[in-house]
Amino acid sequence: MILMLDSAMRATGFMLGFAFVLQSLEHIRSFQNEQLIFLPRLLLALLLMAGFQPLWVTGGLLLLYIIALHRFQGPYNGGADRMGLLILCCLFLAYLLPPGYWREVVFGYLALQLLLSYFVAGLVKVVNPDWRSGTALCDVFRFSAYPVSESLRVYADAPRLMWLMGWLVMILELLFPLSMFAGRGLLVMLGLTAAFHFANACLFGLNRFFWVWIAAYPSILWLQSRIM
To answer: Which residues of 90-117 are buried (b: 16+ CB within 10 A; e: fewer)?
Structure first.
């Protein structure tokens, strides 16, 4: 699959804008000082989806992101906010730089960080004996503060299933970098990781991870077509 840099950047901007729209809508009926941040953010996110003046729009979104970090004393939604900020910074710099080598470096950096996000997550899990034994995943279902329904908590009492699911997740994350050299196999791997994020959204309410991580997928598709 051949994906040109400009097309990959536009696709990333569209999906990131959509993720920001959903996040901003959560604050529409919030405190006034939050509305002053997220109403402009909603407007800029829609403009980013439309592809209107992406340099100025990403710059405005970056400024609002910094204000939000100060307001909430850090990325209040954890990894999803950090990934969103990373994508936004890379997009802003890519549009700021002239077409050529350094623009490709910046966008390639985003693809590399996406790749590492999966591999490092898998590496951290596989060296943990609780993940290798399935205990960690049992504890996620049994004790997690995420909105797991009572009917789903019964899976904590199925250790063999938790062991199998845990190893499937670890193998998926550890093998992700190899998909870069598997041609169309990368599309299959991205489909599997997207399904993984979707399952987390349905089971644990981690919906922000799904939309933000998906927004970075065009960067790795472009990088594969660039290096192969």
So the answer is: bbbbbbebeeeeebbebbbbbbebbbeb
- Residue 173 CA, chain-centre distance (Å), reads 14
**pLDDT one-digit tens code per residue, 61-85:** 999 999 988 888 777 667 889 999 9
Q: Where are the domains of the chain?
A: 5-227
Which among 159, 126, 122 has a CA at the least distance from the CA of 140?
A: 159
Please say whether the beta carbons of 176 and 74 come within 8 A. Answer: no
Residues 6+ positions from 12 with CB-CB distance below 8 Å? 87, 91, 110, 215, 216, 218, 219
User: Tokens in use for 38?
Assistant: 């997220």
State the Cα–Cα distance between residues 98 and 117, nearest whole angstrom. Answer: 28
Widest Cα–Cα separation across the chain: 56
71 compared with 111, residue with greater pLDDT: 111
Those residues whose C-beta lies under 8 Å from the C-beta of residue 165, and which sit 6 or more positions away, are 134, 137
- CB 89 within 8 Å of CB 16: no
pLDDT of residue 16 exceeding 70, the answer is: yes
Q: What is the pLDDT of residues 116-168, one digit of tens each?
A: 999 999 999 999 999 999 999 888 888 766 665 667 778 888 889 999 999 99
The CA-atom distances, in angstroms, between 197 and each of 60, 90, 202, 208 are 28, 22, 9, 9
Name the pTM for this structure: 0.93
